[in-house]
Design a protein that fits this description.
5 strands, 322 residues, 10% strand
Length: 322
């Protein structure tokens, strides 16, 4: 849409066309007067003659027909593969011999949501939500992670040497696993994590006691906790740790997306800390974790928070961003 005060705004176009058609000005003289090219002056005069003053308004640039548009039958095949098999544009394009960009335009034109917005099992759009205040819901989960053998694994030594280092000495043989116990506040995304040796019920219960104390120190009163259906979370020890004031909610079986905020935190943690660089030992990786967690809570911009860190939604932490 043109600026209302521009030379060739609708009013200016009308004056140009009237000078040529009604007043009989030559095209070149009118073009010079209104500082446009002769073809432009001719076009507006032609529209004025055939359609009147209404033709001076802005019109849609959308074409009236698409000679290269896919036939309706091909579009129906694209939509059928998306709805029935939940394939992305690339896979649909390879199957039908169509450019993925063309498939994407067809899907967008019919308003089909992104695959990341859908539940792969049912095809239903995932209903995203956010609690209105800190502490209304805290998501809790455990991430099992393989340990790095002393001296480094295959990322430092290469595949062959890394395997020999992992199995060559008694000290490094079967380095085992660490268990990342995580708690993420739904509203602020503030996270609390401990690296522990197992996922037994006593360990999970003790972790929650410390996590709850951390949230209380930040001025957050936890009202609900959501976990999966792991045995440690169904135990009496964990129930006792929650106490009478905190409601315990569990996800539906085989539906980890219900606890999606902590699952997404797990992925971020692995990408930006656990696998962010080659570590020479497990001790080196563990030592780097506190700084990363502080960065996540106080400095790292979160897309769901419009680029602000979790601490921006917790008033008691705003002064600790150093």
């Amino acid at each position: 849409m043109s600026h209302p005060n521009a030379i060739l705004a609708p009013k200016g176009r009308l004056r140009l066309a009237q000078c040529i058609v009604d007043d009989g000005w030559p095209l070149r003289r009118a073009a010079e007067r209104f500082q446009v090219s002769v073809p432009t002056a001719s076009r507006w005069a032609r529209r004025y003659r055939s359609q009147g003053p209404e033709a001076m308004e802005d019109q849609s640039s959308r074409p009236h027909h698409w000679p290269n548009r896919l036939p309706a039958k091909r579009e129906r095949r694209i939509i059928g593969l998306r709805v029935n098999r939940r394939w992305g544009p690339e896979r649909i394009g390879y199957r039908l011999g169509i450019q993925p960009s063309t498939v994407h335009r067809v899907l967008s034109r019919y308003g089909l949501s992104k695959l990341s917005w859908q539940d792969r099992a049912t095809g239903r759009t995932i209903r995203r939500y956010e609690r209105s205040r800190p502490g209304e819901m805290v998501h809790v989960d455990i991430k099992k992670q393989g340990r790095i053998p002393d001296g480094g694994g295959h990322k430092i030594l290469g595949r062959a040497a890394g395997n020999r280092n992992k199995t060559g000495t008694e000290a490094n043989r079967r380095p085992g696993y660490m268990y990342l116990h995580n708690a993420v506040d739904d509203h602020s995304r503030l996270a609390y994590t401990e690296i522990l040796a197992d996922e037994r019920k006593e360990t999970a219960a003790s972790f929650w006691t410390r996590a709850n104390a951390y949230f209380e120190s930040c001025g957050i009163t936890v009202e609900r906790v959501m976990t999966d259906n792991g045995s440690c979370y169904r135990s009496h020890a964990f129930k006792d740790a929650l106490g009478e004031q905190i409601q315990h909610k569990r996800t539906r079986p085989y539906r980890p997306q219900t606890n999606g905020k902590v699952e997404r935190y797990n992925r971020t943690m692995l990408d930006e800390w656990a696998y962010a660089k080659p570590y020479a030992s497990e001790a080196e990786r563990v030592a780097a974790f506190p700084d990363w967690l502080h960065h996540y809570n106080h400095h790292r911009g979160h897309t769901s928070l419009k680029g602000q860190p979790p601490a921006s939604r917790v008033p008691n932490l705003t002064g600790e961003n150093s």
